Automatic annotation (TrEMBL):
<dbReference type="InterPro" id="IPR044644">
    <property type="entry name" value="DinF-like"/>
</dbReference>
<feature type="transmembrane region" description="Helical">
    <location>
        <begin position="146"/>
        <end position="167"/>
    </location>
</feature>
<dbReference type="GO" id="GO:0005886">
    <property type="term" value="C:plasma membrane"/>
</dbReference>
<feature type="transmembrane region" description="Helical">
    <location>
        <begin position="174"/>
        <end position="193"/>
    </location>
</feature>
<feature type="transmembrane region" description="Helical">
    <location>
        <begin position="357"/>
        <end position="378"/>
    </location>
</feature>
<feature type="transmembrane region" description="Helical">
    <location>
        <begin position="56"/>
        <end position="85"/>
    </location>
</feature>
<feature type="transmembrane region" description="Helical">
    <location>
        <begin position="325"/>
        <end position="345"/>
    </location>
</feature>
<keyword id="KW-0812">Transmembrane</keyword>
<dbReference type="InterPro" id="IPR002528">
    <property type="entry name" value="MATE_fam"/>
</dbReference>
<feature type="transmembrane region" description="Helical">
    <location>
        <begin position="106"/>
        <end position="126"/>
    </location>
</feature>
<keyword id="KW-0813">Transport</keyword>
<dbReference type="GO" id="GO:0015297">
    <property type="term" value="F:antiporter activity"/>
</dbReference>
<keyword id="KW-1003">Cell membrane</keyword>
<feature type="transmembrane region" description="Helical">
    <location>
        <begin position="254"/>
        <end position="277"/>
    </location>
</feature>
<protein>
    <submittedName>
        <fullName>MATE efflux family protein</fullName>
    </submittedName>
</protein>
<dbReference type="InterPro" id="IPR048279">
    <property type="entry name" value="MdtK-like"/>
</dbReference>
<keyword id="KW-1133">Transmembrane helix</keyword>
Length: 453
């Protein structure tokens, strides 16, 4: 049974520590703010570049898709670091926790430099592979090449943010992300219009902002590591440990990306109305996912800390309480997203057919939001436990389960609103249910609760 006493702890000095609810909120709310601040980069770039003309905006759409994909595949730098740092901190080894964070940053820096060089060199080929030509292709290549130097900064942001989350500090990333969004907006306007650089100025402004954000967050961690006596230079064993911990999470991310791309492909086959409606539903779903992901981040940090302290009862208590938060938040989001869908879809389109398709699909997605909350939190719990290998295999299994269902929708569902409703029943229903079953089955056992540093 949940009681007020069970949800609180006694700290070593005899004072009552904050309740689990307060700890969850203290981590989740700033994390949500940082998550929401990040998409502002793309929005600002779009608003500034959009006034340069259609070719520039289309080029930005292609280039930003490539960059978001590259950075998204590297999110393991944050997740793996959060789990490892939280576990060391829970074991009472703050110096070791900061050492893991420093090693993670070195890995991010090296990977970022390699990816920046590859992005710059392959930009024309990548843009061509996406089907772009003429002025659109030219603008896309220009943006990719001017923004590529920012990749080391962006990956540094991922790794350092992961380390700070493991240290149960989500406020510093929020402050840096907010300041970065403001600086990015100012630099974009100044370089694109003031310096007359066009779309190149937008890429450069974003790259400079990302490098600055990475430097600031790295400096915060380095200061803490120096105070704790941790090693600051790169260490082969530490880099390998971080890469090994992140590899399964990379596989997990790849399966999620594959499912999303498959869903877009199916929507494309259901006609222009369904595809346009899918874009609306997907954007709203992504916004809701930020709120649920913030809870998952809190679960990562708290569960990793509890396991590092070898406190299995507290780990179980955190599992139950964070799941209650996830399901509850999903239910609230579902009510809002589904109940008000007929109002806010007007912000996206004036086409009545697209509006109808989006509303129907949003209602379907809204019904599944409590389950999505369960899935997001369980993902966070298992990532915090360092159970990446299971998550990789579970990701493959859920993708295998989803593929025939998605293909069935493509082959059998009608065009327009009915087809889009079936597609979201497949993605938000079948795919998320498969994830809920696999992660829920794992969480019921004890194999994931490995204690100690």
């Amino acid at each position: 049974m949940w009681t007020r006493e069970r949800l609180a702890e006694i700290s070593p000095d005899g004072r009552r520590a904050p309740s689990v609810d307060r700890q969850i909120l203290a981590l989740a709310v700033p994390a949500l703010g940082a998550l929401v601040a990040e998409p502002l980069f793309v929005l600002v770039d779009s608003a500034v570049v959009g006034h340069l003309g259609t070719a520039s905006l289309a080029g930005l759409a292609l280039a930003s898709t490539v960059l978001v994909t590259v950075v998204g595949l590297c999110v393991f730098l944050a997740y793996a670091t959060t789990a490892a740092v939280a576990r060391r901190l829970g074991a009472g080894d703050r110096g070791g926790a900061l050492q893991v964070g420093v090693d993670g940053m070195w890995l991010a820096l090296g990977l970022g430099i390699v990816l920046a060089a590859l992005t710059w060199a392959t930009a024309p080929w990548v843009v061509g592979a996406l089907g772009a030509a003429g002025a659109t292709a030219t603008e896309a290549v220009v943006y990719l090449r001017w923004s590529a130097p920012g990749l080391p900064g962006m990956l540094l942001v991922l790794a350092s943010t992961g380390a700070l989350r493991g240290l149960q500090d989500t406020r510093t990333p929020l402050v840096v992300a907010t300041a970065g969004a403001v600086v990015n907006a100012a630099l974009n306007v100044a370089l694109v219009y003031g310096a007359g650089m066009g779309i190149a100025g937008s890429g450069l402004g974003t790259a400079l902002t990302q490098l600055a954000m990475g430097a600031v967050l790295a400096a915060v961690l380095v200061r803490g590591a120096r105070a704790a006596g941790s090693r600051l230079g790169p260490h082969a064993a530490g880099l390998w440990a971080n890469a090994r911990a992140g590899a399964p999470l990379l596989v997990r991310t790849l399966t999620l990306r594959a499912a999303i791309l498959l869903t877009v492909w199916v929507a494309t086959g259901l006609g222009a109305t369904a595809l346009a409606g899918h874009q609306v539903v997907n954007a709203v779903w992504g916004l809701a996912a930020f709120a649920l992901d913030a809870l998952a981040i809190a679960a990562q940090a708290l569960v990793g800390h509890a396991l590092g302290a070898a406190d299995v009862p507290r780990t179980r208590a955190l599992l139950r309480r964070t799941l209650q938060w996830g399901v509850g938040a999903g239910a609230v989001l579902g009510l809002v997203l589904g109940g008000a869908s007929w109002l806010y879809v007007r912000l996206f389109t004036t086409d009545p057919d697209v509006r109808h398709a989006a509303v129907v699909a949003l209602v379907v997605a809204a019904v599944t939001m409590p389950m999505a909350g369960w899935v997001f939190v369980l993902d966070g719990v298992l990532i915090g436990a360092g159970d990446g290998r299971f998550l990789a295999w579970a990701g493959v299994a859920t993708l295998v389960a989803y593929v025939p269902v998605a293909l069935g929708v493509r082959a059998l569902a009608p065009d327009g609103a009915p087809g889009l409703a079936w597609l979201w029943a497949a993605f938000a229903g079948v795919f998320m249910l498969a994830r809920a079953v696999t992660t829920g089955w794992r969480a019921r056992g004890t194999a994931w609760m490995v204690t100690g540093a």
